[in-house]
Amino acid sequence: MFLARVIGSVVSTKKDETMTGRKLLLLRPMFPDEANPAALKPGGNTIVAVDALGAGAGDLVLFCQGSSARMATGMKPLPIDAAVVGLVDTVEVLGKKAT
Amino acid sequence: MFLARVIGSVVSTKKDETMTGRKLLLLRPMFPDEANPAALKPGGNTIVAVDALGAGAGDLVLFCQGSSARMATGMKPLPIDAAVVGLVDTVEVLGKKAT
Amino acid sequence: MFLARVIGSVVSTKKDETMTGRKLLLLRPMFPDEANPAALKPGGNTIVAVDALGAGAGDLVLFCQGSSARMATGMKPLPIDAAVVGLVDTVEVLGKKAT
Amino acid sequence: MFLARVIGSVVSTKKDETMTGRKLLLLRPMFPDEANPAALKPGGNTIVAVDALGAGAGDLVLFCQGSSARMATGMKPLPIDAAVVGLVDTVEVLGKKAT
Amino acid sequence: MFLARVIGSVVSTKKDETMTGRKLLLLRPMFPDEANPAALKPGGNTIVAVDALGAGAGDLVLFCQGSSARMATGMKPLPIDAAVVGLVDTVEVLGKKAT
Fold this sequence. Notes:
Oligomer: homopentamer
Subcellular location (chains A, B, C, D, E): Bacterial microcompartment
Keywords (chains A, B, C, D, E): Bacterial microcompartment
Radius of gyration of chain A: 14 Å
Distance between the termini of chain A: 17 Å
Protein name (chains A, B, C, D, E): Ethanolamine utilization protein EutN
Largest interface: A-B, 33 and 34 residues
Number of strands of chain A: 8
Order of helices and strands of chain A: EEEEEEEE
CATH architecture of chain A: Beta Barrel
InterPro entries (chains A, B, C, D, E): EutN_CcmL, EutN_CcmL_sf
GO cellular component, one term (chains A, B, C, D, E): bacterial microcompartment
């Protein structure tokens, strides 16, 4: 899994019928940095993930990719390759809290 | 999933028999950019995806990759690793519409 | 899926028994380029894919990766992560033929 | 699989219910280098993996990704795409121990 | 699949119980190069793969990744995402042997 910040959302009316009513979030992956353990660095590419945990703009989340995204609760029949699987409380890097 | 612009198409007459009649689209991945939330930036690599939603040249779409592509309606037996799963109405980045 | 040019082949006598008799092709991924829609650009990494469609040196093909490669006709039990799934007739980028 | 050093951990209270009680480790991938076989080089991106082997900060581990992460003992129903599958005793590169 | 040179090995005593007795090889991916068809170029990242074919240091092998690694003979229940599936006899690039 990777850490990510929720930076936006996507609306798609015409989509695969199994995805009706699903919330699509835009995620910016965030990476810990041992050289500066107190801060997370943004990654290069954004990802669109389905969310069933109620994440909102600015939240730090944990997401998984690939077939494992369909293992998130209620997602089995969906053609999705990314899902939010946790809201992050704390990240600890080399013994320090990172935000 | 990722956002992408439809930039073309591929025709293949001799292909795996399960793919007969399938439309193959060329997709250019597009990425939101917090530094300029109103515009999407093109990614480096193009992808060929199967489409069952009627996407056309210039459309902004949502596509998924890997085994999840086979979860798109009607795609189960196909040897495909990318499928269009939604036509995008709006993308919102940091509270602004991106196009 | 991605487009690729067949640039060579691999011979392996001692291999997983399920792969006996399979043809292994070396593929160079090829990418459309909106800045020059009439030409395809070569990608950085080559891939070894199983072929059951009779592709030969110089052919432009479509290949898929991951578990989907095993969905190609006759490939189910093979430990392969890439398969040729189509021979490409034409690629159209922004309304122009690309070769 | 890849080698990685445990550099921290992630706490997530609100997460997919199947993940309750699971330990989430931050991993820095580490790569052997033939030019300097005695040392491992850190990779660019960190990964969050589930651990069931008791790995701790500073440990060198082996992790797997994708659907295979769910094959780790007890992980089948979890929406995870990375798991620690071994604690590493020794790495040998070109006949030399690497650390 | 990709080509790779065996450059070392990994020993892990405490590992997922299904992996007991498995040989873990360090692989350096190798890529053909049309500009110099007689030589293979090393890739950037090393990979740890399970081997059941008896590959040794210096051997050129073919490996597969992802869920397909578990399709290698005897690997079904293992949490592995890379396996050696062939020992390479010859690689031909643009009609020339590459080594």
